[in-house]
Amino acid sequence: MRTKLLLLCLALLALGSSSCRKDRPGPPDDTPVVVGSDGVYITNEGNFGWGNATVSYHDRTNGTTVEDLYAPANGSALGDVCQSMTLFNDRGYLVVNNSGKVVVVDPQTFVATATITGFSSPRYLLPVSNGKAYVTDLFADAIAVVDLVTNTITGSIPVPGRTEELALAYGKAFVTAPEGDQVLVIDTATDQLIDSIPVSIGGSSIRQDANGRLWVLCGGSMGGGIAPALHRFDPATLAVEASFAFPASASPWRLTINDAHDVLYFLDGGVYRMAIHDSVLPTNAFIPADNRNFYGLGVDPDNGTIYVSDAVDYVQHGVVLRYSPGGTELGSFLAGIIPGGFCFP
Amino acid sequence: MRRPLLSIGACVAGSLLCGQSLTDTVLLRAVEVVAPRITATPGTKLVVMDSAALAHHGFSDLGRLLTEETPVFVKSYGPGGLATAAFRGGSAFHTAVLWNGFNIGSPMNGQLDLSLLPVQVANSIAVQYGGSTALWGSGAVGGAVLLHALPFFNDGLRVDAGLSIGSFADLRQRVRVQRSGRRLSVGLAAYNATADNDLTLPRNTAGDGPDQHRADAAFLQRGLLGDVHVRLTDRQRLGTHAWYQESDRRIPPTTVEPPGSARQLDQSLRLTADWQRTGDRATTSARVAWFDERLDWYAADGAAPALNRSRTLIAEAETRLQPARRHHVHLGLNGTYARAAADGYPQEPRQDRIALFAAYRYTSGNEHLVASASARQEVLDGHAVPFTFSLGAEQVVLRWLTLKAQASKVYRTPSFNDLHWQPGGNPDLRSEQGYSGDLGAVLHRTWRSLTVRSEVTWFNRLIDDWIQWTPGPAYWSPRNLMQVWSRGVETNTTANFHLGRLGVQLAVLTDHVVSTNRIRTSANDASVDKQLIYVPMYSGRGRLGLNYQGYSLTGTLSYTGYRYTSTDNRAYLEPYWLANVRFAYRPPPLKRCTFSIEARCNNILNTVYEAMLNRPMPMRNYQLGVSMQFHRPSKP
């Protein structure tokens, strides 16, 4: 009886220990990497409120990838929700949305050289002159004017409501308004809001084509009502030249343009493309989503390679897929959590 | 059934009659403790907090008690901040918290903030591991925390007051007065706590530069508790509880966000009444509860608040029959009505829930075998939700060895937020459901003054339709996404002995939990067969207590293993060791008064750690408390 019981106890323990498994993850990659000047930076938002934003790097010459440049180089976390990165004058400007800051880094060592603070919810940065940039600030109802020499906010341009992406043309900054139905026009000499262009509601991304025209993608109103639309306008005359309405069920976003500035790309589940001379919107995806969660889109301005990120479940490292302009998959690599933005040299 | 009840009774008596020997049968007989209803299915692992544990936490909240006394991982956002418990690789929604038998989880978000529950709202606390939805209904999937404010009769006048002062300007006061005679027992308690929770963060965890202070986590909490119990006849008893509590907290952002001024106000009123008639063959009871809870959230100073309010009415009737000596039958009917209002709800959602439950229990003649089967069917807004059952047995095989086995079906219904929150709420969500099983062995031996008890439990659980909120094109939305397989081994070993007048208590608890997703949700999903985020695979704690003539010294050491912060298990938080020391002295009673003084040093190793990503936890900190107990026994 006793022996049997002992055996039973041992069996129970064995059963338990059989489920044991190793919990120690691989060693963290915390060696700083100095990168070349021919690579693509991928901003990984990280989870809102978790502070796990990172910046990945893909070397175009040799195809190598660095999962995170910032933390190893600086010994600290970048912050909460890295929304975008802009390269300008041999500096990288990382807009860290929910940390309310813009971190200035050396593009090769990724060591932070300055931090611009005082924003509430910054989104995108646009250099408008050699020493001045505009930063859209979601909840501030204003665009911040930043001195790129002193790395401080020197002024603010009041705007009606939220603002998102910016584009520069003819000495004017054109700013989309995600909750408004206009593109705001700002005189970069006087830092004044001087005009607005009527488009449909939900403006998000804005790009300039080979003819100098600006294209703005509007997401429509949340919960139906107004359908998404794509508009083209002339930044010189401010006249809207063409508008393309999407079906109400569509959710297009992430408008971008190719190296020749004559083909537009955007996401709506899959990747869609449209030549700037096309008279209708594309109906079929150029790269179907195929059970992937496409989240970020970029096109290499040098060779037209398409970079699209899959955020998977938003709580694991995302995958960046590379495609030729013809749509052939060239390969993929792992980035950080929620890869959202691409920054090309 | 009788054994767990007795143990709870003894525990309560122990905690309230601190300093008195538990074996003092005269006292136990004189003071009548009314035991709660059925506590656990046989075969279930039930850990009753002993008097020492409760005495150690006279000034703690439930989150801290679970952190320090159990191996359950408590997701804590810092002192005064949100704390939720995840048992056995489940989520916060899989932990049921019951106060006097009523589930006090919010119908809105389906969970409860343990940092808002002061330990002193109960005089009996038990932690039940494993699935028990057949007993407690939706949500009791990973485990349940059972809090009881048990009434006393014939105990005379008792006054218990205490105050403490600690690091981070933490000040706490509590007082409780109870008067009980043969037929009437009246109790009134009040508590108050304030803290500024200004943490000094060590270098490098905050990101930018040198030492930083986090000064936006101030905390204020106060509450009032009252209870009246009347023995109507020798067989009938009527009782009521009223509990009002309010708290006002600053909610600090993570260390990588700019300082904020978010603020949360919580207000809750909980009223219960129960009636019980004890017969020779049947005990019948009826109980009713009314909970009214408000949560006001201010994103910043001066911002318009987001107002949330829920109201719940619960009515329950049950009868326990003993048709023959070895057989018990338990039948019950529960009706729960909940409604809520929030900015996120277009209409005020309402929920009607009727549950019918039945249990049968067999006890062998020598009481070496206890077995039970129970079943529960709930009807939610007119639709039947999964039928649940549980089967369990405990067999004393040797004087020193008891074997346990339990199997049950478990489920959780979606919360109001899951179903109705706009935008995102998904009215088509199904209930999560699955199976859970335990096998366990309890070894119990006594050699002279040494008593050793060791419990080893192996558990296994599979849950389908696991609800997960995921971002969509425009907003987050919950879906029935994952299938989660959780399994592991828990051990709980205690040893007590005496060396002359020195009493020594030693405890070692370990947890090994593997909780993995089994479904690939998209083409590049690397989360299959990976551990769920924030579920430590290994954790454990040890405690050494020494008692010598009124002096006591307790040291605890705990280990929390890797917690992954990404579902592919590539991002993680480092493991940490924490040590706490507590010293207490209780001089001999002065007439009817007993005084005690305690001093604690938490995180004595000054460990830099985070339970949650970028939510700093306090470094070494101190707390000093004094308490006074006055007791005038009722005349014999």
Write structural notes for this entry:
The complex is a heterodimer of chains A (345) and B (636). By secondary structure, chain A is mostly beta strands. In chain A, 6% of the residues lie in helices and 46% in strands. Chain A has two helices and 27 strands. In chain A, the strands form seven sheets. In chain A, strands 3-2-1-27 form a four-stranded antiparallel sheet, with no helix packed on it. In chain A, strands 4-5-6-7 form a four-stranded antiparallel sheet. In chain A, strands 8-9-10-11 form a four-stranded antiparallel sheet, with no helix packed on it. Helix content of chain B is 7%, strand content 57%. Chain B contains six helices and 38 strands.
Order of helices and strands of chain A: HEEEHEEEEEEEEEEEEEEEEEEEEEEEE
Strand order of the largest sheet of chain A: 3-2-1-27
**Largest binding interface between chains:** A-B, 50 and 55 residues
Protein structure class of chain A: mainly beta
* Domains of chain B (count): 1
Structural class of chain B: mainly beta
Give me the Rg of chain B, rounded. Answer: 24 Å
Report the span from N to C terminus of chain A: 77 Å
Q: What shape does the CA trace of chain B take?
A: globular
CATH class of chain B: Mainly Beta
Which fold name corresponds to the CATH topology of chain B? Answer: Maltoporin, Chain A
Mean pLDDT of chain A: 92
Q: Which ranges of chain A are low-confidence, i.e. pLDDT below 50, for 5 or more consecutive residues?
A: none
| Count of DSSP strands of chain B | 38
Helix content of chain A: under 10%
Low-confidence stretches of chain B: 1-30, 204-210
Range of strand content of chain B: over 45%
The tally of beta strands of chain A, per DSSP, is 27
Report on the biggest sheet of chain B: 22 strands, antiparallel, barrel
Rounded mean pLDDT score of chain B: 88
